[in-house]
């Protein structure tokens, strides 16, 4: 009887540990869902600990990790092509957003990044 109780306790502890861990970010390419009319879709690609993507005008790259459901971006850099003022402002806002540690979740192949009242949604690409 005591062995059965110990096994049940260990199983319960294992299930609790698994349930409390945040979902791992799947590697791959993600494309922005529903960009504003006239805007090119943003994209993000995650491979191991490296992040890259299209940020509205240029390409960006840097390191990343996920810590307790928060995307932590480090050493973010980008190419330096000139675009319209609107595209440059959008890009600057998105790059700042990425560096401000947004909450990250993956819901049915949709990557959701949220910080305060800003949200970006990206769909996994095949």
Automatic annotation (TrEMBL):
UniProt domain DUF306: residue ranges: 36-118
Signal peptide positions (record): 1-19
Keyword Signal: yes
Sorted UniProt keywords: Signal, Stress response
Gene: hslJ
Gene3D superfamilies per UniProt: 2.40.128.270
Protein name: Heat shock protein HslJ
Domain of life: Bacteria
InterPro entries per UniProt: DUF306_Meta_HslJ (IPR005184), HslJ-like_sf (IPR038670), Hsp_HslJ-like (IPR053147)
Origin species: Rheinheimera nanhaiensis E407-8
Transmembrane helix recorded as keyword: no
């Amino acid at each position: 009887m005591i062995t059965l109780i110990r096994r049940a306790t260990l199983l319960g502890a294992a299930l609790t540990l698994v349930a409390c861990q945040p979902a791992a970010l799947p590697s791959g390419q993600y494309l922005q869902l529903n960009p504003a009319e006239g805007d090119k879709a943003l994209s993000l690609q995650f491979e191991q600990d490296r992040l890259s993507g299209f940020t509205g005008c240029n390409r960006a790259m840097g390191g990343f990790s996920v810590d307790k459901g928060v995307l932590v971006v480090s050493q973010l850099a980008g190419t330096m092509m000139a675009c319209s003022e609107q595209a440059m402002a959008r890009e600057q806002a998105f790059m700042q957003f990425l560096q401000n540690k947004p909450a990250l979740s993956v819901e049915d192949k949709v990557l959701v990044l949220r910080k305060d009242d800003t949200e970006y949604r990206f769909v996994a690409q095949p």
